[in-house]
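To the structural biology subgroup,

Please find below the input and predicted structure for Peptidylprolyl isomerase, which we are adding to the shared reference set this quarter. The sequence is reproduced verbatim from the submission form. If anyone notices a discrepancy with their own records, reply to this email rather than editing the shared folder directly, so we keep one authoritative version.
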Amino acid sequence: MKKLLIPCLCAALLLSALAGCGEAGTQATLEPLPGVSASAAPESPAAEYDWDALRETYGDDTVVLTVNGDEVRWDEFFYWFHTDYDRYFSGRSLDESIDGETTVGEYLAMNAASYCVQYHVLAQLEEEKGIELTAEDEEIIAEAQRSDIEEQIGEDGTLEDLYEYLDTIYITPELYDFMTRTMTLYPRMFIVLYGEEGAKLSDEETLETAERYGFMTVKHILFGTVDENGESLSEGEKEAQKTLAQDSLNELLAVPEAEREALFDEMMERYSTDPGLEAYPEGYCFAPGTMVTEFESAASALSPGGISSVVESANGYHILLRKSLTPEDSVLLSGLTEPVTLRYAAAEILLNELYTGAVADAEVAYTEDFAEGSGWLERLSAS
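Predicted structure (tokenized):
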């Protein structure tokens, strides 16, 4: 099963149950409020908090908020609150302002609630779609537990040892199991809804989604002006490459349109210095914001079948040929080492839309003790 990589998913879904606990966890990046810096020094003497005592401010089963009626308890909320403090604000006072309006504590509370909402909405969506763990999923969970035990405890560790360790970083067994199960079901939901590699997605759905997101497929001939070590060629060599590019373009434009792509392919094989040519002989399929600006601007100005003028970038001189999209075009998604098909990428986009839409529509209600103005954060900060 390929690992799903959805760029639009928020940070919480990229965190493993052991996030922030060392190499076993996947580190995610928060989008901070303006003025927030994870490395900024405290504006006042470093604050010290007794986090064990802060955790005991409320019982683990105290309900902080509900998400579409599902209860989020203090243990879950506190884990996220502490984890982000430890990762981004260690030593800073919870009362310290980070943008002139929002305190560290308020920011952490907002993010903790956001993480809880995202996990609970995902679990609800999986239940709504009838997604259940398979034997393969159970083995994935078991392997994740074995890996966590080995990384955090050692080869001779047990699951009970792991739970004891997790308690020191404020993860209860129930929370660990909930997050592990929820995240394991996410790729299963992809397969159930869209099939392996997105095979259930029709050509029409694939292309409609890809066009909506501005995907383009482009072949190009790169007349490079840097060597294999990234060093610039001499001015004379650069000028020779520019001349070769212009002469090649003139030759392409001189033949009938029906013959241009065949000639383009011949020239691409003969002249192009693009190291990605072998992996992408049929061109690059990409969404806006992926390629260098000059390349993208020239590509977006073309209609399928169109050939660009000579385009200069930091890599050299390009001639571009825009292709019509096909569901099987190769796309390299951020975070993956191997290309996937456009059909697969479109299925990921649709699943992400389904999920983020559910998050946006979620009904979130704080309980009386944690509602705005209840003073819970002030009491916590003063502890």
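Summary notes: Residues 1-42 have pLDDT under 50 and may be disordered. Residues 68 and 236 are 67 Å apart (CA to CA).

Regards,
Lab coordination
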